[in-house]
Amino acid sequence: MGTIPERHRPAVRAALKSLVQGDRPDLLVWVRDYGASGADLTTQPEAIWDHPLTDFLQREDGTASVVVPLWTTEESPSDLCAEGEITAGGAVELIDVHVL
Question: Which Pfam family, just one, is annotated for this protein (predicted)?
């Protein structure tokens, strides 16, 4: 468990918004295959920043890894999560979406 620091939240929020909008179809395989008919991601709530399923690991070199649960139209949160990397400069790249 971890809390995503305030300074990283805007970049994480932007990456998640792009995911929800479908801009990263390469990461939506698990979303399409979730349950009997797939899932529809929704705008992620403020609860992701310190949710019990959120993980944040700051490294000595200033980079970090982050995992956040994902909300769908039917589950709050679902068993889906997004995993990302944060550069030392604060840029966020989502690298995977999978089931916990």
Answer: DUF7668
